[in-house]
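Dear colleagues,

As part of the handover before I leave the project, I'm documenting each prediction I ran so the next person doesn't have to rerun anything. This entry is a single chain, and its sequence is reproduced below.
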Amino acid sequence: MEAVALTMFVSLCLVACSLLLLAFTLRNRTHEHSDRLALLPMEEDRPPPTADVAPAGAARKTET
């Protein structure tokens, strides 16, 4: 019977801690942190190639 009482006590402590952490998170408004991180770019965009630079392996046309 003591094991049941100990289990109930530990369970209630865990529930109380989770509720306190939830209240702390909602109060500080950090519950949307993962959404903001998901919207950040993975890497910076490369600048577009300029018209003067030919792609690698392409032959340049010469005017005749």
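The radius of gyration is 30 Å. The helical segments are 2-28, 33-39.

All the best with the project,
I.
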